[in-house]
Design goal:
Elements (H helix, E strand, L loop, with lengths): L1 E10 L12 E10 L5 E7 L2 E7 L6 E9 L1 H7 L7 E11 L2 E8 L7 E6 L3 H6 L6 E4 L8 H4 L3
Antiparallel strand pairs: 1-5, 1-8, 1-9, 2-3, 2-6, 3-4, 4-5, 6-7, 7-8
Length: 152
């Protein structure tokens, strides 16, 4: 199983050039969620479909396995996520050697802007100094986890 090492921040102000990026629409729903953060989710990202299993977080890291699905497999499972869904548009931007993902939420979370940064190592995640356009670090704040935001 792969490991995801990630930090999440609110967006204080959109960076220069953001309006020139193309966003990718994402529909995300949860099949199962445990109180400590283990989860099974479905995601439609443009014309690609995935099921993802994530382990409980351990600091900035967690186990993650993502498997691509066919459209018909996704469509068969999607109704099971009713009441546990969210919509967002993801914009990917370069930041030095990293790529950051700015999520612009829609639906019940309209107006929420979050930026996620994935790192190759936990040491790099801890050493990361966010640029001025990043807001508060919400990596450990469960109120901003997608599993909590998914309530449509």
């Amino acid at each position: 199983m792969n490991q995801e090492i990630e930090r999440k921040f609110l967006v204080k102000a959109l960076p220069d050039g953001f309006d020139r990026t193309d966003g990718v629409p994402i529909d995300q729903g949860y099949l199962a969620v445990e109180p400590h953060g283990r989860q099974v989710r479905l995601r439609r990202k443009a014309d690609a479909y995935y099921i993802t299993v994530k382990g409980a977080p351990n600091g900035f890291a967690r186990a993650e396995l993502e498997v691509e699905l066919s459209a018909s497999q996704f469509d068969a499972l999607w109704p099971l996520t009713r009441g546990h869904r969210l919509r967002k548009t993801r914009h990917e931007l370069p930041l030095g050697s990293l790529t950051v993902e700015v999520d612009v939420y829609g639906g019940l979370n309209e107006g929420l802007l979050v930026v996620e940064v994935e790192f190759p190592t936990e040491a790099e995640a801890h050493a990361f100094v966010p640029p001025a356009w990043f807001g508060r670090d919400v990596s450990a704040d469960s109120h901003y986890s997608n599993r909590i935001l998914a309530r449509e």
